[in-house]
UniProtKB/TrEMBL annotation:
This is ATPase. Coiled coil: none annotated. Keywords: Chaperone, Transit peptide. Belongs to the ATP12 family. It holds the Pfam family ATP12. Gene3D superfamilies: ATP12 ATPase, ATP12-like. The keyword Thylakoid does not apply. The keyword Chaperone applies.
Length: 240
């Protein structure tokens, strides 16, 4: 990809196989850093990714940070798909100390956490057929027998798109519970942000606004929206 210099002039897509679409630069497949070709499961997603590369041509600058869908595709192809078992294990590790298993006692913050965490927790309980514990101390939580095994089995059944979304979202929010609720539309993005940053927002409400923290939340919101767009476009399977 040659640093930040644009070296192509034409961006197209073509069917690579059934339900497989390649993005081409001057007629040649895009090669990702580890050597994979940039191939995605729908024409709709391929066109959106192609638009990111066309914008590079327009601006004459190649900046991967401005190509969120390309980055998600690269994550899926080169980090998730080849290491599915490792990714599932990482997601289970996040769950073991999941942010939504903890609340701040019975004070106002703890009561707010109990209230706002309720919907994503209930969604997770319904999906996995388990009752989630609460802890008011940052210590390891005893998880009921069979819960971890059920989570591992279900995660292992997910396709690469879902695992990519859950991996990115849970890393951002420190919560597999919240990642599930966001990815599967059980809560809005606004609610997801409110859950992920409830302690931070409580501190700002007490001590005043913090522009750096607000910018961090805005960045997280954009990343969540990109993940949801990527998942939706991957599922369309529509030719253009």
């Amino acid at each position: 990809m040659r640093g930040n210099r644009v070296f192509w002039s034409d961006v197209t897509i073509e069917r690579a196989a059934a339900d497989q679409w390649a993005i081409l630069l001057d007629g040649k497949p895009v090669a990702l850093p580890a050597g994979s070709s940039l191939i995605v499961p729908s024409a709709a997603l391929a066109e959106k990714i192609a638009d990111e590369w066309r914008l590079c041509c327009k601006n004459a600058i190649f900046n991967p940070e401005h190509m969120p869908l390309t980055q998600l595709a690269a994550t899926q192809l080169e980090r998730i798909a080849p290491r599915r078992r490792e990714v599932v294990a990482q997601l289970v590790d996040i769950f073991r100390s999941d942010a939504l298993l903890y609340r701040h006692g019975d004070d106002s913050l703890g009561q707010a956490q109990t209230r706002i965490f309720a919907s994503p927790r209930e969604t997770f309980e319904e999906m996995f057929g388990c009752a989630l514990p609460w802890s008011e101390e940052i210590t390891p939580i005893d998880i009921a027998d069979g819960v971890i095994e059920a989570i591992e089995a279900r995660l292992s059944s997910y396709d690469d798109v879902a695992l990519t979304g859950l991996s990115v979202l849970s890393s951002m929010t420190a919560s597999l519970i919240l990642a599930h609720a966001i990815l599967y539309g059980a809560i809005t993005v606004d609610t997801g942000i409110a859950c992920a940053f409830i302690e931070e927002n409580a501190q700002m409400a007490r001590w005043g606004r913090d522009e750096d923290r607000e910018a961090g939340q805005a960045s997280c919101r954009r990343e969540i929206e990109h993940v949801l767009e990527y998942a939706a476009l991957s599922a369309t399977g529509q030719a253009v």
